[in-house]
Structures are given as structure tokens and as C-alpha cells.
Amino acid sequence: MLLLLTLMGLCGFTAYRVVQQLGLAELQTTGLHRLDLYSTSLEREIGKYAFLPDTLDLERDVLALLENKDHATLAAQVNVYLEQLNERAGTLSIYLIDTSGRVVASSNWRRTDSFVGEDLTFRPYFREALESGHGRFFGIGTTRGEPGYYLASTLSDGSKTLGVAVLKVSLEQLEKSWATVETPAMVSDENGVVILGSVANWKFTTVRALEEKTRSAFDQTQQYNRRALKPLGLKELRELDHGARLVSIAKDDPAIASAYPVAGRFLAQSRPLPGTPWTLTVFSHLKQVDDIAQSRAALAVVGTVLLFMVGMMLNERRRHLKDRLAAREALQQAHDELERKVATRTADLSTANQQLQDEVSDRIRAERTLRAAQDELVQAGKLAAIGQLSTGIAHELNQPLAALRTLSGNSVRFLDRGDLATTRSNLERIAQLTDRMGRITGQLRTFAHKSSAQLQAVALDRALDNSLALLEQRLLQAHVTVRRDCPLPAPVALCDADRLEQVLINLIGNALDAMAGHAAPCIELSCEALGQLARLTVRDHGPGLTETVMSQLFVAFFTTKQAGVGLGLGLSISADIMRDFGGTLNASNHPEGGAVFTLEIPLSEKGAPHE
Ligand code: ADP
To answer: What is the mean pLDDT of the chain?
Structure first.
């Protein structure tokens, strides 16, 4: 606000001063033109009469009268002549003064207050004319008190001065040239008394203070005929260049009617009038210039305020733009940062994805390897079982072989004796034994054969039969009671017979191991159909499963058996096989003692398999 106020003040003041100076300069130019105009017209007006006094000596009577002053007829003639001349020229009066200063003839000879006979030696124009040949004077007539301009010239007969011809011009005549005055103007004489003024009551005022000496001189010359000579009230304020000055004129009489202001501040320009001791002054009123300067100053103040506001707005806008730009930049930065983060994350993700894919393919590879290893293990498990069973199998086969040997030896002897009936019965027995042996080897071949992954309908009683047949020797040796609880027709499950038998052999084998040394070993086998599932249970009467064993039962290579007896693979392979069938294998302890293994396999929709 302070800045704005200071700016407003400065601009207003500067505008005021500049416009005022410009206005003054313009006023000065106009004033000079007026001075030219007025002075020229005034000169012309005076010039019209200037030659007239000089021409009077052309009139013989005039010179004759001046030489012979007391000649009455001559005086009368000259009087008439002057009267006529005065009338024609339009002057106030024309008269002749002899060298002694006495008026010898006058145009106003008819009037009672005629100049004729008057002594005018006191008039300066007379003395001046005698001294220099010409005299000029402004004054107020002593007889009629009429102001006028006196033009005097000496008249001579060629050798000596005879007298002085005087012509008085009325001020009114001179004032005619003031018709075009637009602003106040005046003419002051050498004493500073206004003798011509465009304003009526300026006349006979003084533009400067008169000294007492001058005033007394006036009394002597009766120049102003004892007029009051009041001061005009002109006060000089400031001197300008080219003779111009700023003045103030005091208000004189409010009743003066004038086309232009006559009081106040003015620009005054003066110039001496050539051929006279007078000074012409024109006044240009400053009010207009002041008004214009004031209005321009007000405009400048308003302009400053506007400019200031526009500046403020622009500044505000610039700041606003700057803020917006900064915000946009920040946004761009945030965006770039986000993009960079997204790119990093994407790269990380794709790396992680790649890693995951690698891991997955590793897992798939590992699973394949595992699957192959499992298959191998299943195979190995079978071979191991065959190995375990080989003693029993050998025994199993030895028995029929020995029987075959005995029967065939006996048959030969019975044939020799001609006992055909006994020979026949022996041969029939031999055939039965070879059938039994064929069954045993067939089962072994089926078991050892690598199982196919194809699932088929398998009757559970057949699977139980086959498994028990393979373990027959061990069961007999251990005097194990086998209890079977299987409804007929037995449930048919969707699985692989070989591998199911492998699981059963494993479970029954484990049961036999668990009941080793048991007084009355017993294995209970059951099968049933439950909804969509076939359930098989293998229960023994052994010690059951401890908590430690239970927790690791299906872990590969977990075994409590002596080295060389068990590999710890049986249950883990069995569980895998059941999984392959889409079934389950669970272990628990029977409430009455012993372990129970439960197999659940989806039932086959096709029903019983073909023989
Ligand atoms: P292995 O028979 O070669 O030891 P398995 O996986 O078949 O391998 O059995 C793992 C272990 O589970 C056995 O060592 C045994 O301790 C325990 N086990 C399995 N079946 C029975 C059972 N019927 N009664 C008690 N323990 C059992």
C-alpha cells in the first residue's frame, strides 16, 4: 500500500508538472503570436497618424503664422485648416505651438476651452520635439481631461525651427485594433501606468509601485491630470524564459463583465512597442493549463493504480503458473518414480516368474525322476519279496517235485506188475501236482511282471486269494489262522491286480513279522463295498503301532526291523500305489490290540471282471 501510495503520488506529481510545462510552453507560443498580432495592429494604428504633424509645414499659412504669430486673419485661416484636417483625419485635436510654448492655432478654436493661447511648455512632448525634432507622449488633456496620444513634430522654414505641430489621437481610436483580443492585454507606458487595456477598469492603474518623485513629476507635467492611479494588483510569481513570467492579478471588482477571466494566475508576456516608450503585455490565463494538468495528474494516478493492479495480477498469474508448473513437475516426477518402480517390480516379477517356472520344471523333472525311481522301487520291492519268498517257493516246489519223483518211480513199478489202476491214479496225482506247480510259477511271473498303469476291474476276493497263495508257505510255517470275511459276490474295485496284490502281500507280510513268536497268530481279512468305495482291512494280533512308528509309518526307508530283513520301503510304496488307484491307505490300532490297515479303492462301475 505504501509503495502504491508513493507511486501514485510520484506519477501524479510528475504528470502534473510535465503537462503544466507543456501547457505553459504552448501558452507561451500562443502568447507570442498574440503579442505579434497586437503590436502590429497597434503600430499600424499609430503609424497612420505619425506622418501627419510633419506634413503641416507644407501648408504655407502654417509657417507664415508661426513667423507672424499675432496675425489674426492668418490665425483664423490656420484654425479653420486645422479644424478641417482634424475632422478628416479623425484625430482628437491638431494644434500649433510656437517656440515659446504657446498655442497659436488649434483645431478646437471654436470651443470655449480651446487650446489657443495656452502655454504648454510643461508638456514633455513639446520639449522633446524641440530637442530631437519629434515628441511622443501619452497623457490626459489638461483642459478636458481626455486621455490621448500626442504626436509632436517641429516645423521649420528650412533654416530655423518655427514651432511644433501636435496631433492628439484618441485612445479609442487605438483601441479599435484591440477588437480581436481574446485574452486580457494591456499597454503600459514608461511609468508603468496602464494606458490601454482590454479590461475597462485596468486603465490608469499602475503595474508597479510609483515613487513619490515620479508622482510629483506627474503633477508638474499634468500627464495623468491628477488621476488617482491605483495599483492594478499585479504580483509577479515566477520569472520564465523569453521574458515571460507567471503573475497573479488580484480580484478587483466582482461586477466587471468580461468575456475572459481577469483575476487569478496568468502567464504574462511583454514586448516594447517600437517607436514608443510603451510596453505591450498579453495575459494567458493558467486555469485551463492547471485544469488540464490536474485532470492528467488524476489520469496518471488512475493509470498508475491500474498498471499496479495489472502488474499485481500478472505477478499473481506468474506465481500461479509457477506453482502449477512445480506441481506438474512433482506429478511428473512421482509418475516417473512410479513407472520406474513398476518397471523394477515387473522385472522382479518376471525374474520370480522365471524362477518359479524353473522350479516348477525342476519339480516336474524331479517328480518324473521320483516316479521312475518309484517304479524301479516297486519292481525292486517285488524282487525283494520274491527273494524273501524264494526259500518258501523252493520248498513249495520241492515237495511236489519229490512227490512227482516218488509217484513216477512207483508208477513204473506198478506198470511192471501190471497194476494199471494204481498207475492211472499215480499219473492223475502227477498231473494235479504239475498243475499246482504251474500255478505257483504263474503267480510268481505275474507278480514279478512290471505293472502297467492301466486300471482294470479287479475282484477283491481273487486278489486276496492270490496274495494268500503266494504267502501260503510262510502262513503254514507260522501256524497262522487266517479269517476271511468277504461277501459274495465280492466287491470289484478299479485298480491294477498285480499292484494291489503287492500291497496285500506287503501288509500280510508285515502282520506275520509283527506276530513272529506269537502263540496263536491270527490274521483277519475283510472286504466290503461302501457307497462308491471298496474297503479292505488287514488286521493282526501283534503288538500294534507305537506313536513313534505311527508318525513315520509311510516314510520311505523307515523300519524297525534288523538290517537285511526290511528295507522300510513297503508301506511307502504301498501308499503310493493306493494313491495311483485314487484310493487311500490308513493305519490304526484295533481297540482289542493289534494293528489295522485299511485300504479304500474306488469301485469299478463295469462290475465283475471277465475270467
Ligand atoms: P519293513 O517291513 O521293510 O520294515 P514297512 O514299510 O513295510 O517296511 O514297515 C515299516 C515299519 O512299520 C516296520 O518296520 C514296522 O516297525 C512297522 N509295521 C508295519 N506293519 C506292522 C504291523 N502289522 N504291526 C506292527 N508294526 C508294523
So the answer is: 85
